[in-house]
Amino acid sequence: MSSKKPSVLLIYTGGTIGMMQDARSGELKPFNFKALTEQIPELEKFDIRLSSVSFQKPIDSSNMHPRVWIELANIIRENYKKFDGFVILHGSDTMSYTASALSFMLENLGKPVILTGSQLPIGVIRTDGKENLITAIEIAAAQRNRQPIVKEVCVYFEYKLYRGNRTFKYNSAHFDAFKSPNYPVLAEAGVDIQYNTSALLKPVHKSLSVHTNLVNDIAILKLFPGMSEKVTSAILNTPGIRAVIIETFGAGNANTESWFINALKSVIDKNIIVYNVTQCLEGKVIQGMYETSSALKRIGVISGHDITFESAIAKLMYVLGKRQTLAKSKKMLLSNLRGEISV
Ligand code: ASP
Fold this sequence. Notes:
Helix content: 25-40%
Largest sheet: 8 strands, mixed
CATH class of the largest domain: Alpha Beta
Bound molecules: aspartic acid
CATH topology of the largest domain: Rossmann fold
Number of domains: 2
CATH architecture of the largest domain: 3-Layer(aba) Sandwich
Number of helices: 9
Mean pLDDT: 95
Distance between the termini: 42 Å
């Protein structure tokens, strides 16, 4: 502990970065952490105290689940004082969901938590995994005046550092797989790593508070022209739901037919949250801008502003997990809690 070297904890959950091809079926399957690190001798050369923990059974991130987010949050809580930063190796498919969830679960985070992975396994000659992992570690260890430069949950992929809860995976074939259309890139790695200091979350000077109560009783209603009353009603009447995300058109607009508005109103009357998230990847929900969103505003649909779908899911799970009044939950949804919306 007397070492002045920055310390980073590497947490391996799985994903393509550590996958190998099954000799018989040819499928890509998660492999163990030792096999991964053997492929990157560069890790030995870092002037960083690097420790690691690996999931016993690494997963393809399509099998991600809130119980794994809780496990990750607990690993960070237990090791928070021992390390200057954290790197989570994770499949890219659901990386934005995990980054969003952790951003809400880790309140008053004062250290970097960087998620990264790759599109090609580390054992493949053209892998993007080496650069992603090495630079993510460097960012997790980066300090200015002996303070971490980054104090939030981020995604690092293909030379760019993003606020995690602003990202989504937009490309399954390119190395440049993520986008953050409503918030600027936090850093770019070229010859140097250039931090966009004004875009980073400011320090909060409070101690870390970890929230692990997540509620997943959420339904999704993605609107499309011609959506039937029968299907709408089946989704909205799902037993036990506590919130519905309506994925709307443009600036938060929807069909104005009375059957649709009445169906939403009866859900709201049952104290179920209806949360308006636009299908557009850029821009935001402005209820009341068009006639086609005024009724939503009137009946009490909550605007998601410029939140991503991934972050909306995570924010709802976090907010529903709190033992609090509906009014307080609605207020939290409308507020910027971790830099996830621009209000
Ligand atoms: N299916 C993989 C996963 O998300 C894809 C990746 O890692 O890029 O685990």
